[in-house]
Design brief:
The chain is of the alpha/beta class. The chain has 11 helices and 20 strands.
C-alpha cells in the first residue's frame, strides 16, 4: 500500500457538493426503507407522529422526522432486551457487541453485524489517514476496555499499521512499547499525553527522546485547544491532530488534516450530519462560524440504525473549504450541550474556560478545576475556579486579576480564581474532569 497517497478514500472524501447530496439522499432512502420495515421502535415512533414512509422523498425532507434521544435508546433496550426495539436484526446476525454504562449505570449495548463492522472500520481508516497515520507506524493503543477500542484496533490493522494493545493504567507498559518496539504514533484521549508528560517529568524521562512523532486525539475537547496542542507538540516533538466519532453511530467520522483548521467530516455515504439550534431544534445552514449541536442519521447500518440522533455535542464550524482537497466541512468540538453551565444567563463550556486560562501560559500550567456550589447547569457568579499557576507566575495577585479579567472579557461572566501550586490539581489518564460539584466532596 502506498504510504504517500493523499486520501484513504479519495472518491468519498472529495465529493463535490452536488454529488455529496446525491449519494447521501440515495443512501438515506434505502436506509429509511429498511428502518420502516424492520425497526419496531421507529414503526411505533413514526406511527404516533403520523409520518408515513412516502412523506420522506428527498434529503430535504429529513427534518420532518422527529429526533431520536439517548433516553429512547435506553428505554428501547430495557423494553426488548438484549438489542432493543430499535434493532433491525436478530442476535444470530450480530458478530460483535460493545457495552458502555453511559450516564445512568445501565449497560448500553451496541451491536454490529459483519457489514456494520466493515463500515465502522472504513470510517475509522478515513479518519486515521486524514490525521496522518500510515502503514509504517507502530501504534500503542492506551484505550483499554473503552467500548470502541476493538474497532479502533481492527482499523489500525486494516490500514496496515502495527497495533500494540496496551490499555489504561499501564503507563510503564506503554513506555516499554515505545522504547522496545519503536512505537511512534498514538491514538488516545487528549488527557493521556498530558498525563504522560507529567509522568515523564516525575520519572526524569525526556519525553522528546521517546520517538513519538504523532498523536491522534479524541474522546473529549482538548487536542484542538491551542495551548494544549502546543504543550503536547513541544514536549514530544510530535504533531497533534484531532478526531471525533460517536459510539452509538460510528466510532470515527471526523479527522483533522495537516492544515489543522478543524476536523473534517469524512463519513460520506455512512452517516448524514446536521447542525441544529439546541434550544429550538431548528436545522442550521452549514457555514463558517456556525455553532450548534450535531445530529446524525445512519445511512448504512444493519444492526441498530438511528435516525436524527441528538448527540449533545456542541460544535463550531471552522471552515467549509480546505487546501487539502477534502470537501467535508470542518468543526471544533466545544463541549457537550448537557455539560454546559449557565452563569447569569450565559452559556459556558468548561473547555472554553480552560482555553481562556491557557492564554496566560507560562504564568499558568493550563490546569483548572471549576467548583460549583449548586447542581448544574445553573451556576451563581462569581464562578469559583481553581487554577494552577506556573513555576514563575510573577505577582500572584496580579495573575489572579488577569485571569478574572480575561474570563469576564472573553466569556462574559464574573469568576473568583483561586491560584494553587503546579501539580496540585489531579491529572487524568483517560478523560479530564474539569467540574467538581459540592455533593462530590
Amino acid at each position: 500500500m502506498a504510504q504517500d497517497k493523499k486520501y484513504w478514500n479519495e472518491e468519498m472524501e472529495t465529493l463535490p457538493p452536488e454529488r455529496f447530496a446525491g449519494i447521501q439522499e440515495e443512501r438515506l432512502m434505502a436506509q429509511l426503507d429498511y428502518v420502516w420495515q424492520h425497526s419496531l421502535l421507529y414503526q411505533e415512533k413514526y406511527g404516533e407522529a403520523g409520518i408515513e414512509r412516502g412523506d420522506i422523498k428527498t434529503l430535504s425532507d429529513l427534518n420532518k422526522i422527529p429526533f431520536t434521544e439517548k433516553y429512547e435508546i435506553r428505554e428501547s433496550l430495557a423494553s426488548l432486551p438484549p438489542l432493543g426495539k430499535h434493532a433491525c436484526v436478530d442476535m444470530a446476525d450480530v458478530i460483535r457487541i460493545y457495552s458502555t454504562s453511559g450516564t445512568t449505570g445501565n449497560p448500553t449495548y451496541i451491536a454490529l453485524t459483519s457489514h456494520d463492522r466493515d463500515v465502522w472500520a472504513e470510517g475509522a481508516m478515513r479518519a486515521m489517514w486524514t490525521c496522518g497515520m500510515r502503514p509504517k507506524h507502530i501504534v500503542p493503543l492506551p484505550i483499554g476496555t473503552f467500548f470502541i477500542a476493538a474497532s479502533y484496533g481492527e482499523a489500525i490493522e486494516r490500514l496496515g499499521a502495527t497495533l500494540v494493545p496496551v490499555g489504561i493504567g499501564a503507563t510503564d507498559r506503554f513506555l516499554g512499547a515505545v522504547r522496545n518496539l519503536g512505537a511512534d504514533y498514538v491514538l488516545s484521549t487528549a488527557s493521556f499525553p498530558l498525563y504522560l508528560i507529567n509522568y515523564c517529568e516525575k520519572k526524569g524521562i525526556d519525553a522528546s527522546a521517546l520517538g513519538i512523532r504523532g498523536f491522534m486525539l479524541g474522546g473529549e475537547p482538548g487536542g484542538g485547544i491551542p495551548h494544549i496542542r502546543r504543550k503536547i507538540e513541544n514536549a514530544f516533538g510530535a504533531t497533534v491532530q484531532e478526531c471525533m466519532g460517536n459510539g452509538d453511530m460510528l466510532g470515527l467520522m471526523w479527522g483533522e488534516c495537516e492544515h489543522k483548521k478543524g476536523m473534517h467530516f469524512i463519513g460520506q455515504g455512512i452517516v448524514h450530519p446536521e447542525v441544529i439550534d439546541p434550544e429550538t431544534g431548528e436545522v442550521l445552514e452549514i457555514r463558517e462560524g456556525l455553532t450548534g449541536e450535531l445530529v446524525y442519521t445512519s445511512l448504512d447500518r444493519k444492526s441498530q440504525p438511528l435516525m436524527r440522533f441528538r448527540t449533545r455535542d456542541h460544535i463550531l464550524v471552522t471552515q467549509t473549504r480546505c487546501d487539502c482537497g477534502r470537501t467535508g466541512f470542518c468543526v471544533k468540538c466545544i463541549g457537550r450541550t448537557d455539560d454546559m453551565l449557565i452563569v447569569s444567563g450565559v452559556n459556558v463550556y468548561p473547555s472554553a474556560i480552560r482555553d481562556v486560562v491557557g492564554t496566560l501560559l507560562p504564568r499558568v500550567t493550563g490546569e483548572i478545576l471549576i467548583q460549583l456550589r449548586e447542581p448544574p447547569p445553573s451556576a451563581t457568579p462569581p464562578l469559583r475556579i481553581k487554577v494552577e499557576h506556573g513555576d514563575d507566575p510573577g505577582d500572584l495577585a496580579l495573575l489572579k486579576k488577569d485571569i478574572e479579567n480575561r474570563v469576564r472579557e472573553k466569556l462574559i461572566f464574573s469568576s473568583s480564581v483561586e491560584l494553587v501550586p503546579p501539580g496540585t490539581l489531579p491529572k487524568f489518564e483517560y478523560k479530564a474532569k474539569l467540574v467538581e460539584f459540592a455533593h462530590e466532596k
